[in-house]
Design a protein that fits this description.
It contains 16 helices and two strands. The protein has 479 residues and is mostly helical. It has a domain of 197 residues. The chain has a two-stranded antiparallel ribbon with strand order 1-2. Helix 3 packs antiparallel against helix 12, helix 6 packs antiparallel against helix 7 and helix 14 packs across helix 16. About 7% of the residues have low confidence.
Length: 479
């Protein structure tokens, strides 16, 4: 779901999030209201908050992967290419439709022709685009390999594969071809492939040749039918009367010569048209190939399909270095691009706060902003990670050291170990950090049975406290 769609659903009258929470005074975490948290949580996934150090790491990754400055293909360009290929395929589909539905109705023929156009356009657009993507990556791989061998270095060019999560400056002492290869290769022996280019070339050649043959034979059949129709309707007094053959022969020869010349001229004109259509078809495929080449990424983790729906920015179906940096090459531009979205969310939050203030019987003070929520969530995330790390460290069995031999006069020193959180305390902290009730229930269901049993009294007490707080708030509204 895009940011615009989410924003529309939040502002929708009656059924929108703001309208549904207009009287939701239930307290949330700390001094937040539950309604405020719900609204901010909806928009949170469209904001990427990379620290400058991580931003620079991703820029470094794209720079040495050869992807810095490249952009993915937009929806408009994809639609243009599809329409271009579909329009070019229309003529060929017309011929295929006449053969496939030779005994059918005109309506069936039209439907079949449009179906063939859609299938051909989809296949051609996909094949040529994939060929362009693969050609760019393979060309980059092999050019780097050739440049590396030209340096005369004996160093292993594939000694490591650098992932996006790795330190991008760890290999800064390596040669440029090695740094590039480490980010675009799938493995040590990866040299790329031109398989999609071969498939696209063969596919285009087959369609180019067969369409030309079908158009040429179709043209000849049309010429034959026209010639027969002309012969059947011609009324020549010299051919219809009982004249001697010596008088009729010159006229017949002249008619045949004129028909042959006209047919030859039509054949030349038709052949030229067929060649032009074939050239247009090939050029159209070259445009699709070039678009795939220009708008593709070689890095393994530059721009890829997200496995879930929790991507961090507007193009929610993708993730990677490009998506996380929003396609910007400087940190200042990255933050400036996020500011308009933050302004919109702050505006929606302010609308909700004003409605809550108006509907409340108390003089509510709601000064929170979306930036406050992001800072609060970052703090909760850090706390949860630290608690998890402490828990994992406590559960790791350390090797038992051999007993130290001490003189009898020296007493052993006592060192107090840092207390580690128990699984129950860790689960309590995680449940407190989760704002969505359904997610809390899902998290609770994944816990071990003994932990769930131990948490039930605490959950009951927690619920009773929340109800008591709401009841007190309603009582305060009466006075």
């Amino acid at each position: 779901m895009t940011f615009g769609t989410t924003d529309f659903m939040v502002r929708m009258p009656v059924f929108g999030l703001i309208a549904r929470n207009a009287k939701n005074f239930q307290p949330g975490r700390l001094d937040w209201l539950n309604a405020e948290e719900k609204l901010c949580n909806v928009y949170k996934k469209y904001i990427s908050q990379l620290p400058e150090s991580k931003f620079n790491q991703r820029i470094e990754y794209m720079k040495y992967a050869g992807d810095l400055g490249r952009t993915p293909m937009g929806i408009g360009m994809k639609l243009f290419l599809f329409i271009l290929v579909a329009a070019e395929s229309m003529g060929f589909s017309y011929l295929l439709g006449t053969w496939a539905a030779s005994d059918g109705t005109a309506n069936l023929y039209t439907q079949l022709m449009y179906g063939i156009v859609f299938v051909l356009a989809s296949i051609l657009a996909m094949v040529t685009h994939k060929a362009g993507e693969q050609y760019y990556r393979t060309s980059l791989l092999r050019s780097n390999f050739a440049h590396y061998k030209g340096t005369g270095s004996t160093e292993d060019r594939a000694k490591q594969i650098i992932a996006l999560s790795d330190d991008q400056f760890a290999d800064k002492g390596d040669l440029m071809p090695i740094r590039c290869y480490s980010r675009i290769a799938k493995g040590p022996d990866d040299r790329g492939s031109y398989s999609w280019s071969w498939v696209a070339g063969i596919f285009v050649a087959i369609i180019f040749i067969l369409s030309g043959v079908m158009r040429f034979t179709h043209m000849q059949a049309e010429q034959t039918r026209e010639s027969q129709a002309i012969d059947a309707t011609t009324s020549n007094p010299f051919t219809s009367s009982k004249l001697p053959a010596e008088l009729v022969a010159p006229q017949q020869a002249a008619d045949k010569k004129a028909n042959a010349e006209a047919r030859a001229d039509n054949t030349i004109e038709g052949a030229a048209a067929i060649v032009i259509l074939g050239v247009i078809f090939v050029v159209t495929q070259i445009v699709g190939f070039g678009a795939g080449h220009k708008h593709s990424f070689a890095g393994q983790q530059t721009y890829k399909k997200a496995k879930g729906s929790n991507a961090s920015w507007y193009w929610s179906e993708h993730e990677g270095a490009y998506a996380e940096t929003w396609g910007y090459s400087t940190y200042d531009a990255y933050w400036e691009a996020m500011q308009p979205i933050k302004d919109i969310v702050n505006s929606r939050l302010k609308d909700l706060q004003q409605i809550l203030h108006h509907n409340s019987n108390r003089n509510l003070k709601l000064p929170k902003t979306f930036d406050d929520y992001l800072a609060f969530e970052a703090k909760v995330t850090r706390s949860s990670k630290n608690a998890q790390n402490e828990h994992d460290t406590a559960n790791t069995t350390a090797p038992v050291a051999a007993p130290e031999t001490r003189p009898a006069s020296v007493a052993p020193s006592t060192v107090a170990a840092a207390p580690a959180l128990s699984p129950i305390e860790l689960a309590k902290r995680d449940i407190e950090a989760i704002t969505d009730k359904a997610e809390q229930q899902a998290y609770f269901g994944k816990l071990r049975p003994e932990v769930r049993d131990a948490l039930k009294p605490w959950l009951k007490e927690r619920k009773e406290k929340a109800v008591a707080v709401v009841s007190q708030a309603e009582l305060d509204d009466l006075f």
